[in-house]
Amino acid sequence: MTEKFASGNGRAMSRRHFLRGAAGLCAGSQGRALGELLQPPSPDASALKKAAQRSGNILATYTGMHQLLYEPAASAMIAATFSMIAVGNDLKFSDRLRPTPEAFDFIFGDTDLSWAENHKMLFRGHCLIWWNALPSWFKGYVTPANARQVLTYHISTVVKHYAGRIYSWDVVNEAIYHDNRPDGLRVKPWLSLVGEDYIDLAFHTAAAADPKARLILNECYIEHDTPAEIGRRGALLNLATRLKKSGVPIHGIGVQGHLRGATPLDKAGMTTFCKQIKDLGLEIMITELDVDSVNVPAPLLDQTAANQCGAFLEIMAPHVTVITLEALRQEPAIPNQPDGLRPYSNLFDGAYKPTPSYSATVQALERIPSAAGPRR
């Protein structure tokens, strides 16, 4: 099948970048100049950068083409504070990247990666295979007869396009679910279409396309002390163990870190899990760190988020190589919850000023024994 390139921006698929759509991309240089006049100056976040460097952790944030090109305060802070970026929607297997079964539109990802390279930053690819990121043509086009070819063609084409320039890829995202299978694997769509070895196939295909990139299995909701998350954590460990023992070219586990503000963390369980993953010879990355405000009283929101974020990093930071924030700041245009509270708490508020979570993160990183260089 011949690789084709299309223009067009697709559609946003999550809260991560719902602000970053077609309007900003059509603004042009005049809109960009106006934005530069209206945006506040970027605050000093050097304490966070210094703490991450001292701890040996690579500090990253999610962003995207619109933010990098048309939000100068945000892009200036990213360039000054972080050593790696990941993009939320620009490289997912969705309409934006795959407008048709035959076409690829790399303009978003190419712009993001060029920006990172121009600022001497690392780049994390997110994500190759995810049940919740599928183009509109997928359901009517993909069948058990062609699904294996669709999967390998997509991964091979995308990874080869960026070969040698990507620090890591989230190869399979959120493979675990309570679908009543003994192995805990999510059934739809890829397992039901390809078979139980779709994860193995995805990693082998990515490794063949770019032998230099770190290949990561990324998973959500394993951090808390609840039966469901303890079970998901066990299934993830079993999957990682099977992949490693089967010779699948997997390099690490991504722990998303979507923390629930009102749910206790499982300190003992996560500490044991990290040791077990490292005993397999795999690295660990925090890949999507934020804290939600569900069931948190409004007056306690900021401090609860700070406490939860700090406690999580106390557990995880000594074991991980990368810490990635889900969002740079509290996006003012993201709607509040029905109770009036903002849905997530980040390290910076809507005006790019540090929140209590910022201080908690710096303190947690400062308590890690100093490392001579980046953790591996």
Ordered list of secondary-structure elements with their pairings:
Layout: E1 4-5, H1 22-25, H2 28-38, H3 46-55, E2 58-63, H4 65-70, H5 72-81, E3 84-87, E4 103-104, H6 107-118, E5 122-125, E6 129-130, H7 138-141, H8 147-161, E7 168-173, H9 190-194, H10 198-209, E8 214-219, H11 227-245, E9 252-255, E10 258-260, H12 267-279, E11 283-292, H13 301-316, E12 322-325, E13 344-345, H14 356-366
Parallel strand pairs: 1-4, 2-3, 2-12, 3-5, 5-7, 6-7, 7-8, 8-9, 9-11, 10-11, 11-12
Antiparallel strand pairs: 11-13
How would you describe the overall organization of this protein?
The protein is of the alpha/beta class. The protein has a single domain (43-330, 340-366), classed as Glycosidases (TIM Barrel). The protein is built from 14 helices and 13 strands. It has helices at 22-25, 28-38, 46-55, 65-70, 72-81, 107-118, 138-141, 147-161, 190-194, 198-209, 227-245, 267-279, 301-316, 356-366, and strands spanning 4-5, 58-63, 84-87, 103-104, 122-125, 129-130, 168-173, 214-219, 252-255, 258-260, 283-292, 322-325, 344-345. The protein has an eight-stranded parallel β-barrel, surrounded by five helices. Strands 1-4 form a two-stranded parallel sheet. α3 (46-55) runs parallel beside α14 and α13 runs parallel beside α14 (356-366). It is globular and about 55 Å long. Residues 1-41 have low confidence and may be disordered.
